[in-house]
Structures are given as structure tokens and as C-alpha cells.
Amino acid sequence: MTEKSRYRALFLGAGPQMQCGVxxxxxxxxxxxxxxxxxGSTPLTLTRTEGTIAEIWRAVGTARSVVxxxxxxxxxxxxxxxxxxxxxxxxxxxxxxxxQHEWRGLNxxxxxxxxxxLWLADSxxxxxxxxxxxxxxxxxxRGMTRKCVxxxxxxxxxTSAEIQDSTLRQRLIAARENGQLVIGHFGxxxxxxxxxxxxxxxxxxxxxxxxxxxxxxxSFIRGIDRVEEEFHARAAELGLKDDxxxxxxxxxxxxxxGLLGAASAFCYPLDEGxxxxxxxxxxxxxxxxxxxxxxxxxxxxxxxxxxxKELIDRGAIVLVPRGSDSTAYADxxxxxxxxxxxxxxxxxxxxxxxxxxxxxxxxPAGGTGRDSxxxxxxx
Length: 379
Hints:
The protein is 38% helix and 16% strand. By secondary structure, the protein is an alpha/beta fold. The strands form three sheets. It has a six-stranded parallel beta sheet, with helices on both faces. The protein has a six-stranded parallel beta sheet with strand order 10-9-8-11-12-13, sandwiched between helices. The chain has a two-stranded antiparallel sheet with strand order 1-14.
């Protein structure tokens, strides 16, 4: 007995138990895709204990395409299973849609694990022209750019008016009431975000008597480098040991919303400049607090993303010219706090609908990805 594939898309994920940014993105994308095309998709959970070879083979056969936000979870945990699913998709002539968030910013060992997925993919969805350019500049991978399509990145986090109080939130509120300038930085802490650069800015603000308290809402990414040790050493060297807080992982969106709302402003001095893939920036903007960040490296970085561009145009995101020193960032923080800010509703669902439609445009609507005559044999 043969029959057509049941679903348009099979989304590879790690299940709701995986509380990480990659896992959250996959869940929200599949949910939004299902709202647009009811019954058109299904998830496949792959963990260290879930997803046998037989189960993966059968699941791949039920869909016309396989969508993989590689590596689906923290990269060391589950690599072989999603790659196996992509290999099965190739054998079964299903279209492979790979979602690729970054490239050059990845540790070189991580990039190696991504290479097979990129080679197997039929379409590679990216969110930033700069990341696409990084792939083009890689002599080994530049041929992959012919597969690339751009999609507008939505925020992983929807902040809530219903907040959960915490000891840290009370500390931040007390600091502001005592005249301190609470500078926030949200998201995982790793070299690509230049966490130490914000310390330099804090030192300048402190020298001006503005009493900064720099709060990193997130945790350090584990790696082979010494980022965390060097960070704390630099803070002590600048005399900021008592003026820096690292929250660690925050599991609750309600608690996170409370922390973001307690900041005076946010600041991201980025070596690569602001890109359209910075979901952490979008989370901060929802708080209504000004966000100061390095300007983009490419003039067309946001041409494919009108919602992100609108945030910049109305001043919710304040750009600092590339190459500026720490003093320029300190000046922009102060000037941003001096002007009134208007709270504008954030259409979280609309952002996700835009992304799902863009990604859905490369998912086949009928037949199978490579061969519309292909059928699944079931006994």
C-alpha cells in the first residue's frame, strides 16, 4: 500500500523539557506554522534517549520536508540524531530546510558539526545578511550560499505584564531608587557579545559619578576558553567588582520580564555590529527601556526585516557608529535616558507569523521535496 506524505513539514526538536533558546525557537516556529497551516506539520522529539533509528526513518517518511534548527539543543548533547534524520531525508527524497543562525561567531569545533547539515540541506534559512556573507567568505562553505534565503527573525521571548518578583529584581529597583544607573545586558554571555566591552563603558560612567550597576541577565556559555574568569578579573581591575551582577539562568518568563523592566537601559557594544539575528535585543526592547547598540556592518542588514528596521527608525534602538570608543557609548546611554520614551505595543504573534510564512515559502506545498511522485511504502 502506498500513499502521499501526510504532512508538509517534520520539525526536529528536543521536546518541551529542553529549556534553551534553540529548543524554544523550534517549538514556537512549529506552533506558528501549524496555526497558519492546520495539520500541515508535526514535531519529532530527538534526545539522548528518544528517537530510535526506526522511529526517525518512519517519521521522515510522513512528511514532504524536514525542518531542522540545528543542532536542536545545546550542541554537545544531541548531534548524531538530527544528522541521521537529515541523511534519511536525503535518502527518502524529502526536502531539507536547515535554519542557520550564525557562522563565524561559532567556535571552530561547533562549525565542524554544522558542516554535514549544511551540505545535506536543500535550503538554508538565515536571518542576517552579515551571517550569509560570513558563509560566503569561508572558502570551504562559500558554495552553500546558493541555497540561502533570508527570513525575518522573531523574538524568542514575549515579555509579560504579569511579572514574578525576585530578590534580584528588588535589588535592581532599590539601586535605581538610590540613584544608580542600572545597565542591562540580556542573553547568553560569550566572546561574540563582547561582555568585557560593557565593563569599560561602566568604568567611564562610574568615573562621571553616575553610579552604574551592570546586570548581565543570563549565564556564561561553557567552552574551552576562560571567558568567565577573564570577565571577573577585568571587572576587578576596573574597580567594578561590586558594581556587576551576573544573574545566571532565569527559567521563568515572568521572572525575566520583571528583571528586564527593572533596568534603566540596555547596552550592547558588538564588534560585528547589530545584526537582524539578535533575538536578545528584541527581548530587551519589549521592556520599553532604551537600548544602545553598535550600528550594523552592512547597509542592507535590515532590508528584509521591516519590523526590526521600524524599531531603529523610531528610536527604540539607538545606534552607535562602528569604531566608536567607550566614551561614545556612555554618552549615548546618558542622552537616551534624558529623552522621554513612548510605550508602543509589541506584536509578538505578528513577528512569528512573518517568520513562519517566510520559512514556509521554501517548504513544498504538495508532493515531496525532490520528487512529487515519491510515495511512502507502509505495510
